[in-house]
Amino acid sequence: MIVGGAQIGGIQKAEPRATVVARMMALMEQAHRQGVQFLVYPEMTLTTFFPRFYVEDRAEFDHWFETEMPNAATQPLFDLARRLGMGFTFGYCELTPEGQHFNTSIIVSPGGEILSTYRKTHLPGHADHDPARTHQHLEKRYFLAGDTGFNVVRNQGVIMGMAICNDRRWPETWRSLGLQGVELVTIGYNTPSQNNLSAEEGIERRVYHHELSVCAGAYQNSTYAVAVAKCGLEDGNHMFAGSIIVDPDGFVIARATGEGDELILAECDFDKCAFGKSTVFNFAAHRRIEHYGRITNQTGVRIEV
Ligand code: CDT
């Protein structure tokens, strides 16, 4: 299967959904011309990364959320994908009928059916305005921690699972998917180029940690991974690009070169996942769960010596 990543350049506050969807469709058309069969878009593809802004009354930001999917704005994307026979995944902000807010992504079959919904587990940042930071990262204010957990689905013959942005830094994410035999992990991200609490941690280190996380997760679970950025300047704030496709050996096999809308793609031979899964990462043969209790029984570090 040829898998694509549709990197999206900055989306400004004033940019309407229809314009963003048109950009997504242009990349999908290009992907189709180049033989892509499954296309990965970023986290929060439809809007600016608004958690950088603080509002006292969070309801003022409900307009960034989708109450149904597909909806009037995204239906043309679903229609195009069905016409092209393209499977895809993208992230958006979800407001449920019960009034819950999630940072969500979905996998859609080439027939246009939503096969799987994932709600972001690891929400970084903080819940209240913090004047000490160079910019805010208020995901904990605007979203609930996801309630779906990490699941896989078979789409187009491939076992696929989703993670969203900060999830990629947590080995628990990868192993939860790995234990379900995942062959393709999709990750959309919006990562500011600057650490908002440390001037020393600039873009090079940020990109290095991103790549390290994705390559390690792919290798340790013998899976392909596609990590796709929303990047460049958004309302004066810079987010790094660096979209990549990684093979089950942990090697980068495709990489974006710019900071705007850009397609990356790679031929993925999912039979290659079997070697690692049956040798060094044969979980049934080698895992020692009797020693892993702390991973699910405690969150913070406990020093008892
Ligand atoms: N969107 C997202 O999760 N971004 C985070 C920024 C970390 S700094 C609070 C990331 O892990 O890339």
UniProtKB/TrEMBL annotation:
The keyword GTP-binding does not apply. One of its GO terms (molecular function) is hydrolase activity, acting on carbon-nitrogen (but not peptide) bonds, in linear amides. PROSITE patterns: CN_HYDROLASE. Keywords: Hydrolase. Residues 6-270 form the CN hydrolase domain. SUPFAM superfamilies: Carbon-nitrogen hydrolase. It comes from the Bacteria. InterPro entries: Aliph_Amidase/BUP, C-N_Hydrolase, C-N_Hydrolase_sf. CDD domains: DCase (cd07569). The keyword Hydrolase applies. Pfam families: CN_hydrolase. This is N-carbamoyl-D-amino-acid hydrolase.
